[in-house]
Design the sequence.
């Protein structure tokens, strides 16, 4: 439980740092636009970050490659949900959510299997 | 711990400067804009309108009919991932699709840069730090024109390629899953990167074979598993690609040319000479990389990736016409090569090379590289507020089946812009228009073209079968050629132009139309839209002036 909380804390810091970077780069825009853009960007990245979270790689690798993987997964999920008739307005939440859950399941199952083997 | 904090700080500063020089400058340091900014070529609007269509229709089951000449139930053909991400960000944030798209391009460019840093870092931390400054060359000379010319799918595709390369150097359980997602992802984003991944994987396998003097079965097995994952996630699109995309394209996919030009590749040509003084660092690095790999016969992933990326840029001469596009990414893909020779030379003299020294050198190099950058990026667009407002007026106000004709405008021959009217849009051929001015005549017939991403579309006949259809001749009797302007429901005239004589002629034609019952439907400072009360009738008196 403590580990999971610290994981959340790190993701939270990454989101805040991203927001600060956007606020500096897009200083002529509104704060609300920057906040929304940051949060929603990480929402689309989430499945990949979850997937890499428990692997023994550097934190920055989890975030950067998790972002690339997550956007690939989210984009694919939304495309297929659309082909099956799910509207984009729903798929933007459902796609990343489903794949984050699937990633968490795969990662924790792999971890438990490893622990059982040990 | 302190070194890590300094490194993290350096990466944060790198990110800020990298975004500032790119998206910050191009988008005037704002996320939201009242009209599309940074759109300087037709392809930019092709992506934007595709994503807009996905958002509007709620899925990519079909292309919006206004992009297919009114043909309905045609499958969405363009690779879907990037278009979906832009549409999703618009849906989630309330920003316009035209704002989220260029922002995402820069996000993926940044992720590619940071990803490349991490790929190199797994091999050598010093080299990774020294490679970072050269990534700022992404904004030098013609290198950023891939962005302004709308090669947008390429950037997320490259980020996935770099992700794939990174995974090859990582030891982890079930690696084939993310490898497969990256492989399949490239096909759903920008298929040329799929072929680059396959080529790189083969080359890497070959080096493993040479290095270990035995067949790398484990590596091969991982690749096969990842291929299965990729096939599973792309199968419906591969099917669509093979039975619909390829037959609907008249141009060839493979096209060798000994003399690539902007006309035959569709975007500015990138040459290694455009790196200026930094090209010499690259040449030295190329030699050093070859030497390191050949002497040690080790599959050093970042060096191999650098050499591979350099080589890919020249495969246009054997038929890969997307090779020129790959060169836009050279400042990032080749970043490991720039400091390579100097780093190893310097190490001969400096026995103790600390991380702090590398960080200091990276900062100095960054300043030098940034000072040398001559960026063509600036705040600008093909459209301004008046033109965008008029296009929005057409989309919001006119009947769905309206046919609209754009008389001369500086931007309208970049025809993908016109999909935003969400109507059947035609545009005047400017050369013939100029000819009419020279002949001092006002005519009922002008040469014009229909704005469409193609002329053949896959209409779905069942969930898995398609037939190629083209425009209904009753709706679009002619896609390009001499047209009777009286057939249109609306005419759009630009009142101002970079060439004032064309705008003046526009207004002369407009006056002749008004003299024969055309009505002013919409007007602002830059644009006049006339409505035709009797489409197909006698709308204009031909005359000379």
Sequence:
């Amino acid at each position: 439980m403590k580990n999971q909380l610290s994981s959340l804390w790190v993701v939270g810091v990454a989101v805040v740092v991203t927001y600060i970077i956007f606020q500096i780069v897009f200083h002529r825009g509104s704060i609300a636009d920057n906040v929304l853009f940051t949060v929603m960007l990480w929402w689309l990245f989430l499945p990949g970050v979850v997937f890499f979270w428990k692997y023994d790689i550097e934190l920055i690798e989890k975030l950067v490659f998790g972002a690339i993987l997550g956007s690939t997964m989210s984009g694919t999920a939304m495309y297929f949900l659309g082909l099956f008739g799910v509207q984009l307005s729903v798929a933007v939440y459902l796609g990343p959510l489903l794949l984050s859950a699937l990633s968490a399941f795969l990662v924790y199952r792999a971890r438990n299997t490893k622990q059982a083997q040990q | 711990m302190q070194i890590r904090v300094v490194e993290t700080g350096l990466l944060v500063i790198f990110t800020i400067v990298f975004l500032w020089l790119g998206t910050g400058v191009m988008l005037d340091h704002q996320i939201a804009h009242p009209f599309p900014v940074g759109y300087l070529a037709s392809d930019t609007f092709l992506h934007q309108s595709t994503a807009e269509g996905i958002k509007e229709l709620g899925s990519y089951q079909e292309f919006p009919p206004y992009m297919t000449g009114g043909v309905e139930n045609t499958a969405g053909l363009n690779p879907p991932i990037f278009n979906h991400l832009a549409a999703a960000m618009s849906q989630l944030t309330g920003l316009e699709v035209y704002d989220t798209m260029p922002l995402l391009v820069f996000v993926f460019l940044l992720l590619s840069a940071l990803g490349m840093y991490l790929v190199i870092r797994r091999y050598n931390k010093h080299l990774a730090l020294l490679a970072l400054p050269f990534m700022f060359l992404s904004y030098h000379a013609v290198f950023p024109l891939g962005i302004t010319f709308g090669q947008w799918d390429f950037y997320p595709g490259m980020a996935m390629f770099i992700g794939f390369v990174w995974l090859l150097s990582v030891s982890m359980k079930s690696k084939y899953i993310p490898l497969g997602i990256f492989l399949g992802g490239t096909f759903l984003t920008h298929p040329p990167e799929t072929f680059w991944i396959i080529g790189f994987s083969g080359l890497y396998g070959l080096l493993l074979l040479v290095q270990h003097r035995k067949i790398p079965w484990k590596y091969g097995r991982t690749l096969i598993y990842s291929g299965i994952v990729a096939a599973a996630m792309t199968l419906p699109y591969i099917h669509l690609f093979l039975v619909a995309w390829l037959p609907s394209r008249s141009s060839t996919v493979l096209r060798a040319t000994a003399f690539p030009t902007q006309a035959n590749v569709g975007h500015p040509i990138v040459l290694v000479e455009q790196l200026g003084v930094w090209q010499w660092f690259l040449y030295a690095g190329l030699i050093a990389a070859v030497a390191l790999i050949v002497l040690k016969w080790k599959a050093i992933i970042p060096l191999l990736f650098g050499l591979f990326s350099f080589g890919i840029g020249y495969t246009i001469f054997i038929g890969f016409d997307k090779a020129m596009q790959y060169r836009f990414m050279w400042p990032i893909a080749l970043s490991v090569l720039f400091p390579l020779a100097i780093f190893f030379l310097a190490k001969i003299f400096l026995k103790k090379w600390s991380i702090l020294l590398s960080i200091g050198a990276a900062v100095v190099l960054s300043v030098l590289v940034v000072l040398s950058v001559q960026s063509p990026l600036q705040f600008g667009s093909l459209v301004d507020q008046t033109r965008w407002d008029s296009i929005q007026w057409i989309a919001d106000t006119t009947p769905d089946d309206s046919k609209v004709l754009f008389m001369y405008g500086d931007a309208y021959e970049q025809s993908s812009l016109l999909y935003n009217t969400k109507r059947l849009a035609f545009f005047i051929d400017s050369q013939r228009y100029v000819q009419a001015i020279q002949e001092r005549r006002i005519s009922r017939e002008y040469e014009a073209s229909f704005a469409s991403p193609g002329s053949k579309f896959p209409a779905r006949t069942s969930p898995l079968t398609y037939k190629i259809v083209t425009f209904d001749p009753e709706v679009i009797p002619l896609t390009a050629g001499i047209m009777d302007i009286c057939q249109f429901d609306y005419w759009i005239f630009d009142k101002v132009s970079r060439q004032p004589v064309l705008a003046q002629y526009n207004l002369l034609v407009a006056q002749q139309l008004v003299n024969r019952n055309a009505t002013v439907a919409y007007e602002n400072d830059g644009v006049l839209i006339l409505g035709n009360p009797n489409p197909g009738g006698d709308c204009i008196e031909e005359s000379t002036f």
In short: The mean pLDDT of chain A is 90. The radius of gyration of chain A is 16 Å. Chain A touches chain B through 55 residues (CB under 8 Å). The CA atoms of residues 19 and 36 of chain A lie 9 Å apart.
